[in-house]
Amino acid sequence: MSAATRPDWSERLLALAGGASDDPDARLVSFARALLLYSSARAWIAVLRVDGAEAGLLVALALAVSASAGLAFAARREWQRLAPRAALVPLAIHLVWSFPTTDNHFFLELVLVLVLAAFDGATALRTLRFALVIVLFHTGLQKLLWGHYLHGDFLAFMIATGSPFGDLFGLVLPAAEIERLQGLRILVDGAGPYRVEGRDSIWLRLASNAVVVAELVLPFLLIAKPTRTVAAAITLALVLSLQLGARELLFLSLFATGLCLFLPKDPLPRALPWLALGYGVLFGLAAGVIPDGGFLRGGHL
Amino acid sequence: MSSRRAMALLTVLALWPLAQHGLARRLDANPWKLGGFAMYTTPAPPLEIGWIEVGASGPRRLDPAVLPKETREELRDFERRRHALGRLVDPEPVARRVLARRPEAQAVMVVIRRYELDPGTARFRMDETRTVVGR
């Protein structure tokens, strides 16, 4: 192979996230549609959470994002290509408006839209895959660095504060231990210990460390072609259980949409109507017109 | 070349959370914010912010409700930014504006208490900073 035809180092690295059955252009069209549908839902739900002058701004941003999503569904390729670029404007404004309290989920959304806007074809598809595994890896690395998962302390804290996320892991603790944790105070120097000791702690510690190991290892398995499909299924199961537990339904849909990029056959074209329906339901839940039966715990989505 | 630009973007995405971790550790930025993807890693550190005015009769707690609406909004904005950005947000400017609204006060003190879960003891550790501005 001559120097002129040898792939650049960056192309060789990106190729690690390539796939034999990839049809990049088709996958990018369906992913852009799904992603901008998510962005629209997120933007309209955000409108419900503010009032006054801020509501006017957020309505304008939601209209702009929705218009971009509409472009993604256009028949003409030129309009489809324009969609993520058009969405960047309201997303950038949203970032400025919300900073520094911007949700991390929004940063992931913004990065994914930016990749769609900036790149084409195989480069875009591979960059999207790498972006998602980098984010997944960092969720595990941060848990390791903060040190609260080794003994299950963070999960004990979430159980103590009655968080929905804690409910999921509280299933492995005896009722007496949950009562002890929920009796602890927070805004007091020395409050705690938010740690379960002895035999009661075994399952909690196992679950806690399993989450960290999974988030650190799955990114590599998602990139490696032989393990990609199985890893996508395992990651989806992990994200489903954690995000349903945390009631982070919007983030669940965002990350699940991203995981579709790792499957050999693209499920998004068939899933789009269901996604649209699901986002409609989420909006109804957020607006209070669909009763949640206490599932959302204060409207958190 | 687009692949190099893509690698540049991915490099920033890979390195930024480490920088955010540093900001959280050293400057008390909120681990749950600023794109570090550190949600559900540590409790978002609770903050207690108290205002004290020092007058002729000594120090007493200042209830923000006695301040004008725009000053109260500035205090809320300060709390929001301090909670996210930690010590990158200096309390002195907003304390000076509070002092300007309290002509009878000789000084205003901002007390910020931050509670962080210690991974060694699994207990909350409180860190208090006080900022005093005077005339």
Protein described:
- The complex is a heterodimer of chains A (301) and B (135).
- Chain A has 301 residues and is mainly α.
- Chain A has helices at residues 9-15, 24-47, 53-72, 77-98, 104-118, 121-146, 153-160, 164-170, 175-182, 202-223, 228-246, 249-259, 268-287.
- In chain A, α2 packs across α6.
- The longest helix of chain B has 26 residues, at 2-27.
- By secondary structure, chain B is α+β, with helices and mostly antiparallel strands.
- Chain B folds into two domains: 1-42, no CATH class; 45-135, no CATH class.
- In chain B, strands 2-1-3-4 form a four-stranded antiparallel sheet, with helices on one face.
- The model of chain B has no long low-confidence stretch (mean pLDDT 95).
- Chain B is 39% helix and 26% strand.
- At the A-B interface, α1, α5, α6 and α7 of A face α1, α2, β3 and β4 of B.
Mean pLDDT of chain A: 90
Quaternary structure of the protein: heterodimer
SS-based class of chain A: mainly alpha
Biggest sheet overview of chain B = 4 strands, antiparallel
Give the helices and strands of chain A as they follow along the chain.
HHHHHHHHHHHHH
Uncertain residue ranges of chain A = none
Mean pLDDT of chain B: 95
Number of strands of chain B: 4
> What is the radius of gyration of chain B computed over CA atoms, rounded to a whole number of angstroms?
19 Å
Q: How far apart are the termini of chain B?
A: 59 Å
Query: Counting H and I runs of at least 4 residues, what is the number of helices of chain A?
Result: 13
Helical fraction of chain A equals: 55-70%
- Please indicate the percent range of residues of chain A in DSSP E strands (runs of 2 or more): under 5%
Major sheet of chain A: none
* Total count of domains of chain A: 2
Helix/strand-derived category of chain B reads: alpha+beta
| Number of beta strands of chain A | 0
- Shape estimate of chain A: globular
